[in-house]
Write a structure and sequence with these properties.
The structure holds two protein chains of two kinds. Chain A is mostly helical. Chain A folds into two domains: about 270 residues, no CATH class; about 230 residues, no CATH class. Chain A contains 20 helices and no strands. By secondary structure, chain B is α+β, with helices and mostly antiparallel strands. Chain B has one domain: Immunoglobulin-like, CATH 2.60.40.1080. Chain B is built from one helix and ten strands; from the N terminus they run αββββββββββ. In chain B, strand 7 and strand 8 form a beta hairpin. The chains are: A mainly alpha, B alpha+beta. Chains A and B meet through helix 14 and helix 15 of A and helix 1 of B.
Chain lengths: ~550, ~140
């Protein structure tokens, strides 16, 4: 047992990045602060959930009666459960079969079973942590609002402890097909790329199709009755055996509905049905036991086999390629593009930005187009379009606030390159900027087609916003050069509390709100013409100034004495 | 992007829909009456050079029913009461007109070229009216 605890402690220390606190001068203070912040976050999310349930109850958002049915909680629970299971499956597939530390762990004086269990326990702890971030506050708020007895709060926590166990056990079992899929993709890179493109294309196509189905006439006041009825029928679909229920197939989700009832202690008509809840708990325990047995007898041997197979000999033979010399000015650009396309995280983030801005703007404007808005409403629509585009684009820039520090101690190598550092500095920013540029172009088409803004005005508006984006990008990059965080990235790795990133996020929000408000104000002044032209020109002037300041600072910073 | 930032943007996104839905909509008036402003005759007609009176020359061919269907448009299009009333002079004996504006000549009563005046009123406001003289050529 002590070996298992040691193994868990060891891995937990690595995963929770304790080193970050240890290397700080004020270790105890930082620890207390992080605990306090976690508690505040928990309280904040609980208050938000409480407000949501209260508003839903007061305005009868989901039912004709003043209640929030358990089926609403169940729907949220289903989404969270699916997300957790997916996350656990992917994480466990990586940790059990592909993690390089498995080979090291097996050399320790512990049995394979202990090593296997330590991995599962780590995931269980993280699953519990994830539950505390949203789903527990949500149910806690539900409990508060419905006046549950204090003893039932312990029941809820107990239920979530078992549900987390169930999710991890299910994830462990699903990790086997996960590994098969991963193996197929690893061996056939082309297939992986095709599948990814098809998946992304399919998701975008489905989203655009779903958006196109939005009715052309929306009036929340007039149609509130119809909307409520549709919602009620939808929620009845998986809560009751209602043959007329909308989306009747949802009845297959009744097991999850029963999990919700387990946490809530009944179907709402009786405040807490202990008998029914205990039966549900026993069924859940049975399912966990079954999954755990599968994990021990099927997953563990596979884990042991994979972990004990040396990976050094499994390297694929790589075809030798001749070295192509590039112009030294564009060599860094090619290098950065390769990194951007080959780093999964960056690629997902970039594709996410490329898709999210146009799709979100399209959805927003499709909804606005279905509303019969007044002149004031039209100005509001433009303002919110600007706000949403800037919020997403500027927050994507936060990456630039640590782009040079991420190289850790090797970041100074920039000075050793046989070219001016400005090329290297700019090259690091280009790949992300390219994706945002494409995103802006597509968004421009969406705005020109779905809003009352004319094509010419749209071009000026989008150019203006693009100049704002570039200015903020340079600002972020400059903050990282002037105040580098290389030491933290060199020792701890990913830094959650980089002051440059925090500052960039704050500026992103501030700038987005200020610009949106200024445009709204200008649009209201009727005698004020050419608002978008003014925005474009002012943004261009600010960008020119920023480029000048940025270049000057780079020259000064990299000046050799 | 940090999770908290994504959540904040999502909240602002949802709030924007709610705000435009509550504050930006056009004011709606219920049970409002939109009066008839004008009637427009859709049949092909001519106008007298001096007086500007509208007239239609009706010359049915052999075997053709001596009927003429009047078609009118009520303006504005969203007028509350779009009903139209068609009338002939009370002493008119050579034709009848139905509620739907179908003018039927009685050839037995007509020897030579005859004329009559059709009065077209808006049901909501009889002051809004049109007059058309119809010349019947047997």
């Amino acid at each position: 047992m002590s070996t298992l605890i040691t193994l868990v402690k060891m891995q937990l220390q690595e995963k929770l990045n304790f080193k970050r606190i240890e290397i700080s001068k004020h270790a105890l203070f930082n620890f207390i602060l992080s605990v306090l912040v976690a508690l505040l976050k928990f309280a904040f999310v609980t208050v938000l959930c409480y407000a949501f349930i209260l508003v839903a109850k007061m305005f009868s958002l989901f039912q004709y009666f003043n209640i929030v049915p358990q089926s609403v909680m169940s729907l949220i629970f289903i989404v969270m459960l699916i997300a957790s299971t997916l996350s656990c499956t992917i994480g466990l597939t990586k940790a059990l079969y592909y993690s390089r530390d498995n080979a090291v762990l097996l050399t320790l004086p512990a049995t394979p079973m202990q090593t296997f269990l330590s991995k599962i326990i780590i995931f269980y702890i993280f699953e519990l942590k994830r539950s505390l971030s949203f789903i527990v506050p949500l149910f806690l708020a539900y409990y508060f609002l419905h006046g549950y007895e204090p003893v039932y709060y312990f029941w809820m926590l107990l239920c979530f402890a078992f549900i987390a166990m169930f999710t991890v056990a299910l994830g462990a079992l699903l990790s086997i097909p996960g590994m098969w899929i991963a193996n197929v993709f690893n061996q056939h890179k082309l297939l992986q790329h095709i599948c990814l493109i098809l998946l992304v294309g399919g998701v975008v196509g489905a989203l655009v199709y779903a958006i196109s189905l939005i009715p052309t006439d929306i009036d929340f006041f007039e149609q509130s009755g119809k909307i409520k009825l549709a919602l009620q029928r939808f929620f009845d679909g998986f809560a009751y055996y209602n043959p007329n229920a909308f989306l009747g197939e949802a009845k297959h989700l009744r097991p999850v509905y029963n999990l919700t009832l387990l946490v809530l202690g009944g179907d709402g008509f009786a405040p807490f049905s202990l008998g029914g809840s205990i039966i549900r708990l026993l069924i859940l325990l049975g399912a966990i036991l079954l999954l755990a047995l599968c994990a021990v007898f099927i997953v563990k041997p596979l884990f042991y086999k994979m972990a004990s197979t040396p990976f050094e000999y499994k390297k694929k033979k790589v075809k030798a390629k001749s070295n192509i010399p590039f112009n030294k000015k564009i060599a860094s650009l090619v290098h950065e593009f390769r990194i951007a396309f080959k780093t999964q995280e960056r690629m997902f983030a970039n594709v996410g930005i490329l898709i999210s801005i146009p799709v979100l703007v399209m959805f927003l404007n499709k909804i606005f187009a279905a509303m019969n808005v007044a002149e004031f409403g039209e100005h509001m629509i433009v303002t919110f379009n600007i706000l949403i585009i800037l919020l997403i684009a500027l927050n994507a820039n936060v990456y630039a606030a640590s782009v040079y520090s991420r190289d850790g101690r090797s970041s100074y190598l920039m000075k050793t390159q046989p070219t001016h550092p400005i090329y290297l500095i700019i090259a690091k920013l280009v790949p992300n900027t390219l994706f945002v540029t494409l995103s802006f172009i597509i968004t421009g088409f969406v705005i020109a087609n779905l809003t009352h803004v004319s094509a010419g005005d749209t071009v000026m508006l989008m150019l203006g916003l693009y100049f704002v984006y570039l200015t903020h990008l340079l600002m972020c990059a400059e903050s990282d050069i002037m105040n580098p965080q290389t030491e933290i990235y060199a020792t701890v790795g990913n830094n959650d509390s980089n002051p440059n990133e925090t500052k960039s996020t704050a500026i992103a929000f501030g700038a987005a709100f200020v610009i949106a408000l200024i445009i709204m104000g200008l649009l209201f002044l009727k005698e004020n013409q050419n608002v978008y032209l003014k925005l474009m020109l002012v943004a261009l002037a600010v960008l020119c100034r920023k480029v000048y300041v940025f270049a000057s600072k780079i020259k000064l910073y990299f000046k050799e004495k | 992007m940090k999770k908290s930032v994504v959540i904040l943007i999502a909240l602002i996104y949802a709030a924007s829909i709610v705000l435009v839905g509550y504050l930006g909509l056009k004011a709606k008036t219920y049970n409002d009456v939109y009066p008839v402003e004008r009637l427009e005759i859709l049949n092909e007609y001519s106008e007298m050079p001096n007086t500007g009176d509208k007239y239609i020359t009706f010359n049915p061919k052999d075997g053709e029913e001596p009927t003429l269907q009047f078609e009118c448009r009520v303006l504005p299009d969203n007028a509350t009461d779009k009903k139209i009333i068609y009338k002939l002079a009370s002493d008119c004996t050579i034709a009848t007109i139905s509620e739907g504006g179908l003018l039927t000549f009685l050839p037995d009563q007509i020897d030579s070229v005859s004329s009559l005046t059709v009065y077209i009123y808006a049901n909501q406001n009889p002051a809004v009216q049109e007059e058309v003289i119809v010349y019947f050529i047997p």
